[in-house]
Design goal:
The protein is of the alpha/beta class. About 50% of the residues lie in helices and about 10% in strands. The protein contains 27 helices and 16 strands. Helix 10 runs antiparallel to helix 11. Bound molecules: FE(4)-NI(1)-S(5) CLUSTER with Oxygen (BF8) and iron/sulfur cluster (SF4). FE(4)-NI(1)-S(5) CLUSTER with Oxygen (BF8) binds next to helix 14, helix 21 and helix 24.
Length: about 650
């Protein structure tokens, strides 16, 4: 008994060490009082496997599993003779393939929906943004002028279907990449044919006894990742804009304070926006609002989490309760009457927490069921059947609330919804919409460069802290930051997604933000919306003055608190597109291997971008800034300017914000 107590004490969670999100911290304390366990607790109790953490094991056949020695990576090979470089690159490849499959399957679902809308078989959705439909069609050579919307849409569908199913040739959106970037891809056999083929090809190579040349494997990783970034994800973003509307800046609230004690609270958590869009229809249905009132509620409060939440935040200003590491904590409030999930980043642990607090948890997607969780399947042909039923269940739970409710009184406001199209308009105005002012300000040095800070939160590092510290240092050094996914929610909670946050930026960026009235941190949507960042990069190249390919641009990317395989795929498509991309937390790789050298140096020598790895936000910032400066120098636009290091007083000032 004594011993048990001892172990328990050693494993106790020190809340202030695991999150800087005050709302999550408050809920973790409550969870402990309530005897409820979360992923934070499990992470504290379970150390990562040290061999897996460095990707030194292979279980691709039953001669193994084989375990190599991390301290002496070339001292041993697997039973089949596979070297550490083969093993590491194959493990990496499987992450890329899985991440790409997740995004492209999401994109394909949007494509299915689009086809059915265009064919008139689905009436609950429509083509909302005809202008965007025409722009996307034009960008890949579909005839637009003088044609009916439906005819354009039919042709666009046929073209985009090739993104997935084509067996030979180049995916349609490869045309959107700058010529030099495309040439680099062609030179290394990295232009995707179709996503299904590339994912299949990559997985084939990782089978025992197939591709055992790590460089060759990495080229197919690039090809597969590009099939995601410039393929599956880009199709998801573009079709979602066409059907649900292209985001324009909208003021919205984030954090758990968005929950309302006197209303029926419903959270949608996941990735495919169609469920959420229909839910929005349902919560505005007068009969359901009346039903909520009849149950004693003031109304129905619809709130998002994770990526579909980020899309709804950007498109419609729907409040957002928090990022990935807050999805269990939010239920600890006791105020969530129903949570409906679709696919990706849905912790199985949600089921237990929901049970503890009586939240009605529903899976809705045939690809993502959870043992013991009720399933109400969502069908696009009759979407309201599912979404109305979720509301009816939430109302019943509201009526039967029995536990005390504690909602953290924390709410932050921000401006979201900076689509590529809006950035164009914002900078150039209606009559001369263009990235020219951005390029000009980069060339004249007011803006030093652009950074994409994206990705997850992860209980292995202090939630939100790395994102926030990194972004603060970047903007302080005049680097404009664009964001997606959970990272953007971290910054929104820290109050940096407002035009007023410009005072935290360096003098050059501050001036530009104040002139345009924009925040120094631009939230552009969900993780599939990283494709918007690719388009922005392509546009910066097209406007001119900053080189001929994306690899020439003074830009860099980071996923400082990453956890998912999708993040690895995103990292690889940014690298393959020419961007220096730094990952935090820890990365499954051994520094003393040729595979490590390939990712961090070799790819850049071939004309791609490269990977970087670091844990500390200030170190990550330093790496990104040094890279941006290197690119400025190569472009001949390097003015003598020093990196501004924050002294203690500065930091305290920033922390007080
Ligand atoms: O796709 S940032 S934790 S929610 S994987 Fe997941 Fe990571 Fe969040 Fe969205 Ni993206
Ligand atoms: Fe071991 Fe080779 Fe089999 Fe992997 S494929 S488990 S390294 S024998």
């Amino acid at each position: 008994m004594e011993k048990d107590k001892d172990t328990k004490e050693k494993q106790a969670l020190i809340i202030k060490d695991v999150t800087t999100c005050d709302a999550t911290a408050q809920m973790l304390a409550k969870a402990e009082r309530d005897g409820v366990e979360t992923a934070f607790h499990r992470a504290a109790a379970m150390k990562p496997c040290p061999i897996g953490a460095e990707s030194a094991c292979c279980k691709h056949c039953s001669m193994g599993p084989c375990r190599l020695v991390t301290k002496d990576p070339y001292g041993k090979v697997g039973i089949c003779g596979a070297t550490i470089d083969t093993i590491q690159s194959r493990n990496f490849a499987r992450m890329v393939a899985t991440g790409a499959a997740a995004h492209t399957d999401h994109g394909m679902n949007m494509l299915d929906l689009f086809r059915e809308v265009v064919n008139g078989n689905i009436k609950d959705y429509a083509i909302k943004d005809v202008f965007k439909l025409e722009e996307v069609a034009r960008s890949i050579g579909v005839e637009v002028d003088g044609r009916e919307v439906r005819d354009i849409a039919v042709d666009l569908y046929r073209e985009l279907e090739r993104t997935y199913t084509q067996v030979e040739g180049e995916i349609p959106f490869a045309k959107r990449a700058p010529q030099k970037t495309l040439e680099t891809w062609r030179k290394h056999g990295a232009v995707p044919r179709g996503a299904m083929r590339e994912i299949m090809d990559l997985l084939h190579r990782t089978h025992m006894g197939v591709d055992q040349d790590f460089e060759n494997i990495i080229h197919q990783c690039s090809r597969t990742a590009i099939a995601d970034g410039w393929g599956g994800s880009m199709v998801a973003t573009e079709l979602s804009d066409i059907m649900f509307g292209t985001p324009t800046p909208v003021k919205a609230e984030v954090n758990m304070g968005c929950l309302k004690e006197d209303e029926v609270n419903i959270i949608i958590h996941g990735h495919e926006p169609n469920l959420f869009e229909s839910m929005l229809d349902s919560v505005n249905d007068p009969s359901l609002i009346q039903a909520a009132r009849d149950a004693g509620a003031m109304g129905i409060n619809l709130v998002g989490m994770c990526c579909s939440g980020a899309e709804m935040l950007a498109r419609h200003g729907i409040p957002h309760a928090g990022n990935f590491m807050s999805t269990e904590a939010v239920m600890v409030t006791g105020a969530v009457d129903a949570m409906a999930v679709d696919v990706q980043c849905i912790k199985q642990g949600l089921a237990r927490v929901a049970e503890c607090y009586g939240t009605r948890l529903f899976t809705t997607n045939p690809r993502c069921r959870i043992e013991g969780v009720a399933h109400i399947e969502f069908h696009e042909h009759s979407p309201r059947e599912c979404t109305d039923s979720i509301i009816e269940n939430a109302i019943i739970r509201f009526k039967n609330r029995s536990l005390p409710i504690e909602i953290p009184k924390i709410k932050n406001t921000g401006i979201f919804g900076f689509s590529h199209e809006y950035i164009n308009y914002m900078l150039g105005g209606t009559f001369r919409a263009s990235y020219t002012p951005l390029n000009d300000n980069i060339i004249n040095g007011r803006i030093r460069g652009v950074a994409g800070v994206v990705g997850c939160t992860n209980p292995r590092v202090k939630q939100d802290w790395v994102h926030v510290e990194l972004v603060k240092e970047l903007i302080r050094n005049d680097i404009l930051v664009v964001q997606t996914g959970c990272s953007q929610i971290a910054l929104a909670k820290a109050g940096l997604c407002t035009p007023e946050a410009a005072h935290l930026a360096g003098p050059g960026l501050r001036e530009v933000c104040e002139t345009v009235g924009m925040p120094p941190v631009l939230g552009v949507g969900s993780c599939v919306d990283n494709s918007r960042i690719l388009i922005a990069c392509a546009e910066m190249v097209r406007i001119g003055g900053l080189g001929a390919g994306i690899a020439d641009l003074p830009v860099a990317g980071a996923a400082p608190e990453w956890m998912s395989e999708k993040a690895v795929t995103i990292g690889q498509y940014f690298v393959a597109s020419g961007v220096y991309t730094v990952f935090g937390v820890t990365f499954p790789i051994i520094k003393e291997t040729r595979f490590y050298r390939l990712l961090t140096e070799g790819l850049e020598e071939m004309g791609f971008g490269k990977w970087g790895f670091a844990v500390d936000p200030h170190e990550i910032a330093g790496m990104m800034i040094a890279h941006i400066d290197k690119k400025r120098k190569a472009l001949g636009i390097d003015k003598a300017r020093e990196r501004v290091l924050m002294d203690m007083a500065d930091r305290q000032k920033l922390e007080a914000v």
